[in-house]
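Morning - flavin-adenine dinucleotide inputs below, output right after.
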Amino acid sequence: MMMRDQVRRFVDREVVPFAEAWEEDGKIPRDIFRRMGELGFLGMRHATEFGGTDLGPIASIVFAEELARSGFGGFTASTLVHTDMSAIHITKSGTTAQKQTFLPAIIRGEKICAVAVTEPDAGSDVARLRTRATRDGDSWVINGAKMFITNGVYGDIIILAARTDPSAKGSGGISLFIVEKDTPGISTTKLSKHGWLCSDTAEIGLSNVRIPAENILGVEGRGFYAIMETFQNERICIGGICAGESAKAIELTLQYVRAREAFGGPLWNQQAVRQKLAMLAAKSAAVRQLAYHAAELSSLGTNCLREVFMVKALAPEVLHEVVHGCLQLHGGAGFMRGTAIERMARDARVLTIGGGATEVMLEEVAKRM
Ligand SMILES: Cc1cc2nc3c(=O)[nH]c(=O)nc-3n(C[C@H](O)[C@H](O)[C@H](O)COP(=O)(O)OP(=O)(O)OC[C@H]3O[C@@H](n4cnc5c(N)ncnc54)[C@H](O)[C@@H]3O)c2cc1C
């Protein structure tokens, strides 16, 4: 696929040589988003009339896999939240006017997008969310708090979930809104993390945030179902991330053990070392196939909930095994800041939690057995 080669070239030339500095700054330069916009990377899931290329889940998984091969999980996460987890809601359920207003700048990488579902007291159990949106004339007024929001500090547009009908129980009465970050009443606190250092993560306070009535996204009260649907795309992307990061970790480790001498030859000469890497390569290949299978079913419009839950349950767990196995084979060097595998092991940690914790995903698989 031409797009795969193009993304790989971009990652090798314009990301890898610079991203260590972004990690130190805790910030990805805006020019990089604009450059990805120029290259057409940010519009793959949006219609051509707004500047996109209208591709499907296969494009998303290829893009995710190639970004992940950078070995910088924070860069991968911030980009995919923008392309595949937030703005995609506007394309899926926005009005023509909303698409005309917001999509062109998002696709050009001029405005960066976040999605705010999680709250201090509602994570895996999305139906517990309490942020409240109240209709007041031609506005909605939003009060509440959001937690762990990727692109929440430096982003410009938030796709935000809030409760519009407090009498509706559980998953009912939740709606989505397009909220511009510079609206008065929004405060953000940048959180300090274990990994994904170049990606900004925010706690967001919302105090009497007044937005135009027309910024409700999709059908009032149906937000929970829109969130769940988009989660499926996010989880396919996470399968791609795990495939890309695993492949990169194994490549780096192969180079290392072939060059590193001990006990009369390169470490690769030790059968236990070779077999360890061979097994990790086999497990990674199996996970990659499952993820691409789910993306293919999704692109055909076939029900693939079970497969997608399987991908999200399995791929990050296998990635943990891969990065820690690879770190082990780097010896002490693997524990040192500045080694790619050290960063990759930190970055991988969150993937069994975000986008649906492994345990929650396994329950969903079990329901479908
Ligand atoms: C770096 C980062 C970026 C994020 N970005 C975003 C974002 O952009 N937007 C957004 O909305 N959210 C975001 N999140 C939030 C993320 O989706 C949540 O952290 C995740 O859904 C888990 O919610 P929680 O942290 O509240 O954990 P909890 O729901 O409190 O769960 C804690 C742990 O309990 C276990 N557990 C939970 N439920 C069950 C169960 N039913 N059975 C068995 N075990 C269970 C799991 O091990 C889980 O990890 C981000 C999180 C992180 C860390």
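Note: The pocket of flavin-adenine dinucleotide is lined by residues 81, 114-118, 123-124, 148-150, 193, 196, 201, 350, 353-355, 357, 359-360, 363 (CB under 6 Å).

O.
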